[in-house]
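EI: anyone free to look at a 130-residue chain?
SC: sure, send it
EI:
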Amino acid sequence: MKAILSMAFVLGLCGLVSARDAKADPVGTWKCEYDIGGNKRTSTLTIKKDGDKLAGTMTWPDQKDEKLKDVKLKDGTLTFSAVRKFMGNDIPIDYKFTIDGDKLKGKGESDFGGGKQEFDINGKREKKDK
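SC: here you go
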């Protein structure tokens, strides 16, 4: 009886983990909004499947299609980095998001001007044209 209950528990746990990853599908185009120093900013995040890996780009109003590095989805958390080119500076930014359906929420973090900067980001997945 214990063996049956243990097996049911393990199968249930596996189902929860796979359901969580299925729920956290990062593939698509995301319109993101964030605030730095009281200024509202926007970006577009595009995530695609590249074989069994994830790849993508980040676009800002003044910088197009910056390739993402180390794109990973683990336990429902999407992480990657991108280089923001701003006023003659290359600023590496690390991103960490949780995905809930067509919404994402997370943070960007960079070392700039001798200190760490962190900012909150919210995004919505664009609907696909039918």
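EI: Residues 2 and 8 are 10 Å apart (CA to CA).
SC: 👍
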